[in-house]
Amino acid sequence: MLKKITIIIIGSMFLAIGINVFLVPHHLLDGGIIGIGLIVKYIWHVKAGLTIILLSVPLYIIAWFYYRSFFYNSLHGLLFSSLMIDIFSDLRGVITLNPIMSSVIGGVFVGIGIGMMLREETSTGGTDLLAQFIARMTNWNVGIIIFMMDAIIIAIGSFVIDSTSFLYSFIVVTVVGIVTTV
User: What are the DSSP calls for 8-74, one per residue?
Assistant: First the structure.
């Protein structure tokens, strides 16, 4: 259990650094619940971590009743990563890179964080949980469902961010996906 908590904390720190140091300064998005949290942040200036927790509550209620093991495995990941995202928000602007470098490096950091948590059978929750529910009901591949959700979230984000950030956000999602699976 100590190993799992340690990896969740370290993974959450990677995730938070990737988001705050590299994505937010250029208004870049990731997919999933993190992307939704960033969209809300860019529109209403609400803390992304808090938004992620609030938007995840309905999914965690469903998980409590129908997928209890995911509830227990992911709750720690959700809480730690969301908390770290908000705590590390003071790191914004510490490093100044061009948007393409930020999208690649930010994607690497986020991907490392998520990948570490997934290897310990935990996650940041949110849309991953929703994708697993949909996959169970439809027999679709969960990876394809997550990819489709990410594309929809980035498309919605295109109304909030400029076209350059929109294109770089696809780089972020691609890099996160690649690094997560390594």
Answer: HHHHHHHHHHIIIIIIGGGT---SHHHHHHHHHHHHH---HHHHHHHHHHHHHHHHHHH-HHHHHHH
In a domain, 118, yes or no: yes
- Percent of the chain's residues with pLDDT above 70: 100
User: Average pLDDT, stretch 15-30?
Assistant: 97
94 within some domain: no
Structural contact between residues 165 and 28, judged by C-beta atoms closer than 8 angstroms: yes
- The pTM score is 0.92
Q: What 3-state class would DSSP assign to 167?
A: helix
Residue among 174, 179, 80, 169 at smallest CA distance from 122: 80
**What range does the domain containing 126 cover?**
2-89+99-181
41-81 tens-digit pLDDT: 999 999 999 999 999 999 899 889 988 888 888 898 999 99
Q: Which two tokens stand for residue 67?
A: 């997928």
